[in-house]
Write a structure and sequence with these properties.
26 strands; single chain; Deoxyribonuclease I, Chain A; 6-stranded mixed β-sheet; OB fold (Dihydrolipoamide Acetyltransferase, E2P); alpha+beta; elongated
Length: 580
């Protein structure tokens, strides 16, 4: 009898489903960049912290705080990929039991091939606090998949991909500066670059769809500017597209801490001189056709939008002399981009303002873009012969353009030279121009040679006028502490922008770091007459989705105002000459 009872009990026990062994998430994540359990099938019981089934086909789970281990290197959170899996009753705060296979997807540890998932109750967990700066950028891995809180202030560092991918680059504490704008190239610049990397991360809308509509994070006035911020941020820390990023778990509203400057900065003086990179101003064939062009607008409609923005910015600047950068290199005829811009300005100019273009027969290079100079013929006149040089790199690159002007009211004279040196992009540089890892990028040797040749050329009075008062303007593709800028300064020029606007003067934002690529360098004879110099921050701090482009702009946030008329801020300089 006893044997028969024992046999029945054994049959009953055998009929009860075995309870899978639960594996802690911290063990799955492990202390390294990849899970030590890749390929293994595991069962996890953890709290659902964020539901991204509608955008990412999955959810994030995190251990209850009581189950966290004591190793700070092991994350307590994980992503569970659920495409094609039947899921019911899952919501944030649910205690979830899930069985799936561990794998790495583009650097993110996750569970996939899920064969069973269910909510088994309610539970709580807490965000992990991340205090920035981290000891090393690699330490973000310690929090992969976790609900985190990052105490602030948290500042917008870059909005370049806001409209395209719904993401913003953020920095802890304050906005970030280009290392060679504030420090010497080499070790000092590398130290700043590392510090910047330790305290920045991406805020992502958690949606893989491109060109999201509506565009996230914009304020009621339709923009989000670099320098805006929040006091703290809570979301899911994860890794995707080769970057650590935070997916928000609730609405995020940025405070306007860097308001738009509605009018250009006051620079004083009797004469206002400016430089403006107009971001590939190409007008097709000049007759309404000829699009797309090699650069710039792709359609007549896009060009009309670009034209309106550039004109709006220039009219507001009200400069007497403007050096233009990235103009189409198509001559000076009535159908040229330059003359179309001048006509557009004169159609909008207030009474007493009449724009004209500097015209030269000199070789202006074979590049698709060139520099140009326009001026208000009511306040200044050309006093020399416009000139350029083909020495050294200028023979194949974008040569400078110089002209001497006389202020009609005072008789004061100065020579203005507008420049656009070789960019930092590497392409295929020769060994002398390869990136030296000192913060100056590629082609630094060529830019430095060009700067030296520019100084020597200006000593020859190229416009035919003996004038020592010289203003070097333009996009030097070099930050304030880099060799090309230092070469010009050592050649007898003063950095007017840095003098009047400080060491953190900037005109451009690249990958979250702001710096001055656009300069105003005054000869020692001109420097006493400079009354002010500043960038007008209408472009660098604004999202590119606000520009004239239509291809990736489903939200259609375009306005014909000056905002994001280019990717560079214009630079203005005040000059004060004594009355006659």
């Amino acid at each position: 009898m006893m044997k028969r009872i024992l046999a029945v009990l054994l049959l009953l026990l055998a009929s009860i489903p075995a309870v899978a062994q639960v594996t802690p998430i911290n063990r799955i994540q492990g202390p390294g960049a990849e899970s030590p359990m890749v390929g293994q099938t595991v069962t996890v019981e953890a709290v659902l912290t964020a539901d991204f089934r509608s955008t990412l086909d999955g959810i994030f789970l995190q251990e209850e705080q009581k189950d966290w281990d004591e190793d700070p290197r092991t994350s307590e959170g994980i992503f569970v990929y659920l495409r094609g899996v039947q899921t019911n009753g899952l919501r944030p705060g649910s205690l979830i039991r899930v069985t799936g296979q561990v794998n790495e997807f583009r650097g993110q540890t996750q569970l996939s091939r899920v064969d069973k998932i269910e909510a088994i109750g309610q539970a709580t967990t807490v965000p992990a606090r991340i205090d920035l700066p981290l000891a090393s950028p690699e330490h973000w891995e310690y929090y992969e998949g976790m609900l985190v809180t990052i105490p602030g202030p948290v500042v917008v560092a870059d909005t370049y991909d806001l409209g395209r991918y719904g993401q913003v680059l953020l920095a802890h504490g304050a906005r970030q500066w280009s290392p060679t704008n504030v420090a010497e190239p080499g070790e000092p610049a590398r130290a700043i670059a590392l510090e910047n990397a330790r305290r920045r991360f991406i805020l992502d809308d958690g949606n893989t769809a491109q060109n999201p509509k509506p565009t996230p994070y914009l304020s009621p006035d339709g923009t989000l500017r670099v320098g805006d911020g929040v006091d703290s941020l809570t979301g899911i820390l994860t890794y995707a597209f080769d970057e650590y990023r935070v997916y928000p778990v609730g609405p995020i509203t940025f405070e306007r801490r860097n308001p738009r400057p509605t009018v250009p900065p006051a620079v004083g003086g009797t004469l206002r001189v400016a430089s403006f990179n107009v971001l590939n101003y190409f007008n097709g064939d000049g007759k309404g056709g000829g699009f797309p062009t090699p650069r710039g607008a792709k359609t007549p409609a896009e060009f009309a939008r670009q034209h309106a923005k550039i004109v709006s910015a220039l009219i507001a600047m009200n400069a007497d002399i403007v050096g233009l950068i990235e103009m189409e290199n198509d001559g000076y005829g009535p159908e040229s981009a330059l003359q179309e811009l001048v006509r557009g300005l004169n159609a909008k100019a207030p009474e007493g303002v009449r724009y004209a273009a500097v015209v030269t027969d000199a070789d202006i290079g074979s590049d698709a873009i060139r520099q140009a100079i326009i001026y208000n013929a009511a306040t200044v006149r050309e006093a020399g012969t416009a000139a350029t040089t083909s020495a050294g790199p200028f023979g194949t690159r974008r040569p400078p353009l110089a002209q001497t002007f006389e202020e009609i009211a005072t008789g004061g004279r100065l020579t203005v030279v507008i420049n656009h040196l070789k960019s930092k992009g590497c392409g295929e540089p020769d060994p002398a121009n390869a990136d030296a890892n000192d913060g100056q990028g590629c082609w630094n040797a060529e830019r430095t040679e060009a700067a030296h040749l520019l100084v020597e050329w200006l000593k020859t009075n190229p416009t035919g006028v003996e004038e020592e008062k010289v203003l070097v303007l333009g996009d030097l593709n070099a930050y304030a502490k880099e060799d090309p800028v230092r070469t010009i300064i050592e050649g007898g020029f003063a950095n007017a922008l840095a003098h009047f606007s400080g060491a953190t003067a900037y005109s451009y934002v690249y990958r979250g770091e702001a710096g001055a690529l656009d300069h105003a360098l005054a000869s020692l004879a001109l420097a006493p007459h400079v009354t002010g110099a500043a960038a007008w921050h209408i472009n660098a701090d604004e999202p590119r989705i606000l520009d004239y482009g239509m291809e990736f702009n489903p939200a259609n946030l375009y306005t014909d105002g000056p905002w994001r008329s280019s990717d560079h801020d214009p630079v203005l300089v005040g000059i004060g000459f004594a009355p006659k």
